[in-house]
Amino acid sequence: MRKLQFPLVVALLLAVPAEAQTRPAAELSTGVLHAKIYLPDAEKGYYRGTRFDWSGVIASLEYKGHGYYGPFFQKFDPAVPDVIIGDTIVAGPNSAASGPVEEFIGADETALGYAEAKPGEAFCKIGVGGLQKPEEKSYSSYQHYTVLSPGTRTVKKGTDWIEFVQTVDCGTGYAYVYSKKIRFIKNKPTMIIEHSLRNTGRKLIDTEVYDHNFLSIDQQASGPDFAITFPFDLKASADMDGMAEVRGKQISFLKVLAHEDTLYTPLEGFGESAKDYQIRVENRKTGAGVVISGDRPLSHLGFWAVRTVLAPEPYIRMKIAVGEEFRWRYTYDFYVITILSSE
Question: Which of 19, 76, 122, 162 has an alpha carbon within 20 to 30 A of 45's alpha carbon?
């Protein structure tokens, strides 16, 4: 297959906020919800990194005058591996994304086939394609890899839905057909993201996928106006450095995040049922909220936030035998509560 090269300084000019309007995109609307969704494009696409799935990157989504997504960074720099959090938030090519983007990565934090590939050979990053392994022994989500096998992509669209399909043979026994469909429910403030992953290769696909929910609700700073609630009692596995704390089923901010404040913790307490895959994020200043539900059990769970965005990160596990298919679905129910005046 044709080998794609992506020189970081030239070809990886991903969309910084000022130029985002020039990137290929589609509009979805029901009259209740309205969204702008970036389209995968190897030359002009908003996201062309090798970390996240290229399909379904949501630039914006509006409900009743409230916004839920948008870039969390102010500047793009191709030399930055991940993000630099400071007075200006700078994102590199592999993390400069928007909306509920997804990354496929194993429980060992390695991409599919990376450990068994020799330098120069291909490994498989679902949603991106077959990538070339460098000399480094350890995989990193923040390193940009050469794309050897991008596969083929198709996009179909209606007024209130869009479907992305990627077909890839990574060249090392791993191959797949991956479909993601985003659709709005008529007359309801509900978005559903449906996935299917079919193993068309010669090897077992054993991986996890997490949804990096980049929520920037009404562009409000992450802080005490937000409440993040789960259906089970939480336990934070890391020290949250006085920025937030767990209170039963809820994460509560203790301060407004500013400057280089960065919060991350794994979360525990969920069970083996899909009923625990339910996350409510609500801003009690503007009244905008969303409930995020999945139809598969959680395998891991994390929470990340900086001042411009907060991101619950739910993981699910999949083991797909040769010739088999795995399906999963996320449901986003958007809502607005009435804010009572304190006067």
Answer: 122
What percentage of the chain's residues is helix, strand, coil (to nearest 5)? 5, 45, 50
pLDDT at 31 over 90: yes
Closest alpha carbon to 132 in 142, 143, 117, 122: 122
Could you read off the pLDDT of 158-217 as tens digits, one per residue? 999 999 999 999 988 999 999 999 999 999 999 999 999 999 999 999 999 999 999 999
Looking at the predicted structure, is the pLDDT value of residue 341 above 70?
Answer: no
What's the whole-model pTM score? 0.93
| CA 97 distance to own-chain centroid | 8
What token pair was written down for 157? 């669209």
Helix (H) or strand (E) holding 37: strand 33-38
Q: Is the pLDDT of residue 15 over 80?
A: no
CA 252 to CA 5: how far, in whole Å?
A: 44
- Strand-by-strand arrangement of the 278-283 sheet: 152-157, 161-169, 175-184, 190-199, 325-336, 288-294, 278-283, 226-229, 250-253, 244-247
Please choose, from the candidates 117, 178, 109, the residue with its C-alpha nearest in 3D space to the C-alpha of residue 142. 109
Distance CA 185, CA 78 (A): 38
The angle subtended at Cα 43 by Cα 38 and Cα 49, nearest 5°, is 65
